[in-house]
Design a protein that fits this description.
Layout (H helix, E strand, L loop, with lengths): L5 E7 L5 H9 L5 E3 H7 L6 H10 L12 H10 L1 H27 L5 E5 L14 E6 L2 H12 L3 H9 L4 H6 L3 E4 L4 H18 L7
Parallel strand pairs: 1-3, 1-4, 2-3, 4-5
Length: 209
């Protein structure tokens, strides 16, 4: 049988370092699709999802050029769980449809494995699209500090964002593999290298690359 292209779901809480880990795998020649990028695609001007969002919330969620004001929308949905659920009902099916198409292309490729990078891998049901689930883990205090710094919000807002996500313990309980991203770059590189070897073996290929 020909080697199978595995799909590895990569997830983690906000500011856990998913992009950093993805770039490390990319340097090893591994392709990926990012659910956040896909989420931005489905709300571009002209897309049906943006029209639905604008109809519900009005011009306060639109920038002057007609693009979605993601920060304004985030403030609305984080303050109201019902609104977050409505937004997810509009965007998640469209995101999933596009992800399914791209993962199918990966399956047909010659890559030993590919990544689906998604902060909502478990919450959105996207975990059903992958073969293994890799969680990028950092302590909650690190998440809060990084979020406040990166997103230019105060500590209380950063805590609220972290609290709105799946609890760290639940995320770890669902993981097949875990990367601890609380260390330095060298430590992270070693963990990625080890997982790359493991995934190649699981795909039926020699571990070396």
């Amino acid at each position: 049988m020909p080697p199978k292209t595995l799909i590895i779901g990569v997830t983690g809480g906000i500011a856990s370092g998913k992009s950093t880990v993805t770039r490390a795998f990319a340097r090893l020649g591994i392709p990926w699709v990012d659910a956040d990028d896909t989420a931005r695609e489905v709300v571009k001007p002209g897309e049906p999802a943006l029209a639905e969002i604008a109809a519900r919330y009005g011009p306060r969620v639109l920038l002057a050029d007609g693009r979605l004001d993601r920060r304004a929308l985030r403030e609305i949905v984080f303050a109201a769980p019902d609104e977050r659920r409505w937004l997810e009902s509009v965007t998640h099916p469209r995101i999933r449809e596009r992800l399914v198409e791209r993962l199918a292309a990966f399956r047909r490729s010659e890559a030993p494995y590919a990544l689906l990078v998604s902060p909502l891998l478990f919450e959105s049901g996207q975990a059903a699209l992958v073969d293994r689930r890799l969680v990028i883990d950092v302590p909650e205090a690190v998440q809060i500090a990084r979020t406040a710094r990166r997103d230019d919000v105060d500590e209380a807002q950063a805590r609220a964002i972290v609290a709105a996500q799946m609890p760290r313990e639940e995320r770890l309980a669902r993981a097949d593999d875990v990367i601890d991203n609380a260390g330095d770059e060298a430590d992270l590189a070693d963990q990625v290298e080890a997982l790359d070897q493991r995934y190649r073996v699981l795909a039926g290929l020699p571990g070396s690359h």
